[in-house]
């Protein structure tokens, strides 16, 4: 069983590594000190299980799992100092929830549970079912507007503040965040983004496009009632007739 350790504190990762070595049957495939690094490690290493802290800089544990929705992902065992997250952790079907400081006996039981899950089903299937349940639970809960999102360019991943996103554009089955330094792939749908973005800043302007109104610099009407918007980065996006009237009212156009 290959395990990824995700915790922003090096001593906590080192302690887990030492205990896992004593438990046996477990290989530590890698480590990450924040959620963005963890996404890169999951993609590169494809671990079976992730020992995951919840409160971390850049991207917390639950935010990380949202980004993994629909991707090949490991089973999750939460390891944290905060017991108030326990109920939510089990609602999203974590294999186990360990409170720090973790004893070797308790960690061994969690690893045994994870191995049972892997033995009962194909590892990829078990993890995908867990992440799918997570997505369903999180989608049903009131959520604050997104303040940041993970963008991918090749093997590298970058945390993007929503203020820096000038538009979200769908290209066939993929969705990209348009920023001042180019496009980055995001693991979201436009429908899902529309439900989580701040409506004071973002507006749907086309079936394939959401724009950040703060970055619209020019509007040029076109035939049939639509328009073309030029963004601060120089990119242009089409505004369909369906959305043009509402945008005119919002911008005083």
Report what the structure shows:
With about 250 residues, this protein is an alpha/beta fold. The protein has two domains: about 1-140, Response regulator (Rossmann fold); about 150-250, OB fold (Dihydrolipoamide Acetyltransferase, E2P) (Beta Barrel). Helices cover about 35% and strands about 30% of the residues. It contains eight helices and 15 strands. It has helices spanning about 10-25, 35-45, 60-70, 85-90, 105-120, 125-140, 190-195, 240-250, and strands spanning about 1-5, 25-30, 50, 75-80, 95-100, 150-155, 155-160, 165-170, 175-180, 180-185, 200-205, 210, 215-220, 225-230, 235-240. The protein has a five-stranded parallel β-sheet with strand order 2-1-3-4-5, sandwiched between helices. Strands 10-9-8-12-11 form a five-stranded antiparallel β-sheet. A hairpin with a 2-residue loop joins strand 6 (about 150-155) and strand 7 (about 155-160). Helix 2 (about 35-45) packs parallel to helix 3 (about 60-70). The radius of gyration is 21 Å and the shape is elongated. The N and C termini lie far apart (about 60 Å).
């Amino acid at each position: 069983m290959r395990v990824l350790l995700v915790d922003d504190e090096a001593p906590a990762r080192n302690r887990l590594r030492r205990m896992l070595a004593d438990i046996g049957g477990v290989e530590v495939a890698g480590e990450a000190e924040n959620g963005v690094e963890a996404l890169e490690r999951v993609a590169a290493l494809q671990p079976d299980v992730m020992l995951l802290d919840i409160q971390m800089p850049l991207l917390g544990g639950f935010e990380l799992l949202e980004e993994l929705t629909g991707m090949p992902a490991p089973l999750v065992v939460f390891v944290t100092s905060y017991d108030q997250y326990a109920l939510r952790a089990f609602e999203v079907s974590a294999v186990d929830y360990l409170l720090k400081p973790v004893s070797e006996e308790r960690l061994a039981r969690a690893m045994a549970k994870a191995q049972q899950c892997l033995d009962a089903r194909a590892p990829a299937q078990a993890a995908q079912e867990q992440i799918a349940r997570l997505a369903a639970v999180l989608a049903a809960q009131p959520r604050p507007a997104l303040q940041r999102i993970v963008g991918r360019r090749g093997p590298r991943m970058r945390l993007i503040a929503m203020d820096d996103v000038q538009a979200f554009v769908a290209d066939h089955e993929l969705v990209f965040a348009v920023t001042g330094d180019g496009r980055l792939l995001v693991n979201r749908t436009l429908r899902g983004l529309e439900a989580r973005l701040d409506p004071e800043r973002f507006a749907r302007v086309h079936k394939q496009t959401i724009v950040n109104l703060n970055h619209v610099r020019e509007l040029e009407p076109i035939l049939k009632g639509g328009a073309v918007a030029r963004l601060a980065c120089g990119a242009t996006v089409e505004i369909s007739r369906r959305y043009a009237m509402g945008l005119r009212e919002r911008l005083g156009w």
